Amino acid sequence: VPPANLKFANYSFNQISKIENVHRNPYLNTLILDHNNISRIEGLSRNRCLKYLSLNNNQIQIMENMEDLNIHTLLLAENKIKMISGVSQLTLLTRLNLSRNMISKLKGL
């Protein structure tokens, strides 16, 4: 179990299929989960300090469950996203990467 005061976590290149137990790290501001098997954005609503979220190279199809996040950077490159959604709720967002997905229209920005 990581310490409760953890601020940075990189779990890239693993076999993670679900985002869970992240709420145990309330001071976490950077979470990197690149190159895993994650299919849903979930389990982050209680992480009020999270500013940087990277989920590149996963299996995510829908941009969801982000309305409570205070993130500045959202990286979702190389997933299976077809439509941009939920971005307008991320009022602090300054950096967004959706490259190499299946997006056909810029609707939702």
Topology:
Blueprint: E1 8-10, E2 30-32, E3 52-54, E4 73-75, E5 95-97
Parallel strand pairs: 1-2, 2-3, 3-4, 4-5
Helix content: under 10%
Q: Tell me the distance between the termini.
A: 37 Å
Strand content: 5-15%
Query: Which regions are unreliable across 5 or more consecutive residues at pLDDT < 50?
Result: none
Description:
The chain is an all-beta fold and 109 residues long. The protein has no helices and 5 strands. The chain has a 5-stranded parallel sheet with strand order 1-2-3-4-5, with no helix packed on it.
In short:
0% of the residues lie in helices and 14% in strands. The protein has no helices and five strands.
